[in-house]
Amino acid sequence: MIPQLVTVRVRRSNGRRVRVYLPVLPVALLLSPLLLLAVLGGCVACLVFRIGPVGALRGAARVLWASPGTRFEVEQGRTAVLVSVR
Asked: How far is CA 66 from CA 2, 3, 12, 60, 70, in A?
């Protein structure tokens, strides 16, 4: 299942917390011109490193489909960032 929502929580150094909800589909549609450039760059990288583009695309799709339920947190000093994929 493709992820539907990404939640980003940031705890700033002054103790305030900020929570941002990012729906994946509208963000992907807005960034689709950049996505096209990224795909073209990926194809060039596959040719340079002699990797099959279909296999690389298959691997990227498997990572995308496995991402729902993933959580990771980065903490440095008094600032923390938590990203949750649903």
From this structure: 8, 9, 30, 10, 8
State pLDDT tens for residues 19-59: 999 998 999 899 999 988 998 999 999 999 999 989 998 99
Model's pTM, two decimal places?
0.61
**Domain span holding position 74:** 5-85
Q: In the numeric block, which tokens belong to residue 23?
A: 């729906």
How many separate domains does the chain show?
1
Contact residues for 83 (Cβ-Cβ < 8 A; gap 6+): 6, 7, 8, 9, 71, 72, 73
